């Protein structure tokens, strides 16, 4: 009987963890659809936005997408390598990236999270340099006094 009570407590604790932690993660993952594919115009239509094409080249097509007050960048790439090089370079400037096969959407955290429920994909974060900017901009003012 002494073994039953601790085992019930462990089982109850495990059930709480499953319901609170793993269950909610599973629900979030279940809400993410299969990653969309297609042209910039097709992806924009899926995201219900009107693309304003800014770059129309062989390697990259990029547009500013607007849907009401929501605004984000949508880019498609000719190659996976071109996409990865673009993301790696862009991440140095910070930002939030929703990444699919040969496409990227860039916007505020909430916008990227919302787009993910429609377009699928994975979220990547850029490097946050704001701490460095604050310390470097305050240093010259101290040296000037």
How would the global form be characterised?
globular
Radius of gyration: 22 Å
Secondary structure tally, helices: 5
Summarize model confidence as the mean pLDDT: 78
Structural class category: alpha+beta
Q: Assess the beta-strand content as a share of residues.
A: 25-35%
Distance between the termini: 76 Å
Question: Numbering strands along the chain, what is their spatial order in the largest sheet?
Answer: 1-2-3-5-4-6
- Share in helix: 40-55%
Describe the main β-sheet briefly. 6 strands, antiparallel
**H/E element order:** HHEEEHEEHEH
Strand segment count: 6
Give the helix/strand layout.
Elements: H1 4-30, H2 40-46, E1 50-56, E2 60-67, E3 70-77, H3 80-91, E4 96-100, E5 103-107, H4 109-119, E6 122-125, H5 130-143
Antiparallel strand pairs: 1-2, 2-3, 3-5, 4-5, 4-6
Gist of the model:
The protein has 145 residues and is of the alpha+beta class.
Could you walk me through the main structural features you see in this protein, from its secondary elements to its overall organization?
- With 145 residues, the protein is α+β, with helices and mostly antiparallel strands.
- 49% of the residues lie in helices and 26% in strands.
- It contains five helices and six strands.
- It has helices spanning 4-30, 40-46, 80-91, 109-119, 130-143, and strands spanning 50-56, 60-67, 70-77, 96-100, 103-107, 122-125.
- A six-stranded antiparallel β-sheet has the order 1-2-3-5-4-6.
- A hairpin with a 3-residue loop joins strand 1 and strand 2 (60-67).
- The protein starts with a helix and ends with a helix.
């Amino acid at each position: 009987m002494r073994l039953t009570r601790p085992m019930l407590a462990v089982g109850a604790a495990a059930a709480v963890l499953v319901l609170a932690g793993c269950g909610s993660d599973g629900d979030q993952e279940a809400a993410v659809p299969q990653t969309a594919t297609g042209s910039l115009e097709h992806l924009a239509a899926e995201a219900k936005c009107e693309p304003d094409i800014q770059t129309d080249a062989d390697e990259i097509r990029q547009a500013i997408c607007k849907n009401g007050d929501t605004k984000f960048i949508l880019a498609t790439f000719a190659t996976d390598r071109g996409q990865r090089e673009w993301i790696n370079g862009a991440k140095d400037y910070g930002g939030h990236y929703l990444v699919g096969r040969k496409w990227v959407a860039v916007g505020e955290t909430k916008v990227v999270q919302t787009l993910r429920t429609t377009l699928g994909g994975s979220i990547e974060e850029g490097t946050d340099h704001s701490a460095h900017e604050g310390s470097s901009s305050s240093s010259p003012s101290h040296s000037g006094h």
